[in-house]
Amino acid sequence: MFISSCTLIQDMFIAGTDTTSATLEWVMTELALHPRVLKKAQEEMRQIAGNKGKVEENDIHQFRYIRSVIKETLRLHPPLPLLVPRESMEDCVVNGFDIPAKTRVFVNIYAIGRDPEIWQQPLEFNPERFEGTETDVKGQDFELLPFGGGRRGCPGNSFAMATVETALARLLYHFDWKLQDGVDAGDVDMSEVFGLTTKKRTPLILVATRNQEFGFKA
Q: What is the pTM of this model?
């Protein structure tokens, strides 16, 4: 029992860190390609956290725009392109489609996040689309299901979001970021490697400059 419990915890931790690292890379990629969004995100967090030299947990809970940035990234680049498959227990009809019993069903959240019938200008990275809305990633809003929903939803949802928010906040608070000299936005490879997680085909390379006003303090 102890061994199986440890294995379960290990599997959850590995899965959480793998998807989290992929999401962080996509967030930083989109921010590097959209300097206006990057500037707005940094201004929000630096105003809230002040120049005390660190970002605290209480500060992170107040970062509304950063949360919108993460949601928009998860919409365009969900950690898992397909949710864990479901199997219908009995004959049913969903949106006019007849689904026989014992049919295995895959939910394509990658396609849902880019569906023009759901999202205006779906291929545009626009965190402002979430401002003033209650749309969240907890599985209650079917247009945004990066972690699934219901009893089969990802158990690491809260852990993943907390990790991404904390890491991103500290990266953006302490450092200024830009593309390498001679590299334009159009040069950045946005292709994906489809597998268990949706990762960038080409690793992101950015130049980080430590911000003197918001540097580390003991």
A: 0.86
Q: Which amino acid is at 158?
A: S
Domain limits for position 194? 1-78+108-210
Q: What number of H helices and E strands is found in the chain?
A: 6, 8
Residue indicated by tokens 């569906």: 115
Burial of 185 (0-12, 13-18, 19+ CB in 10 A): exposed
The annotation status of 92 as a binding-site residue, yes or no, is no
Q: Is residue 171 part of a domain?
A: yes
Specify which residues 176 forms β-bridges with: 209
Nearest to 201 by CA among 215, 210, 190: 190
Q: What is the pLDDT of residues 81-131, one digit of tens each?
A: 888 888 889 999 988 989 999 999 888 999 999 999 999 999 999 999 999
CATH number at residue 183: 1.10.630.10
CA–CA distance, 33 with 109 (Å, rounded to integer)? 24
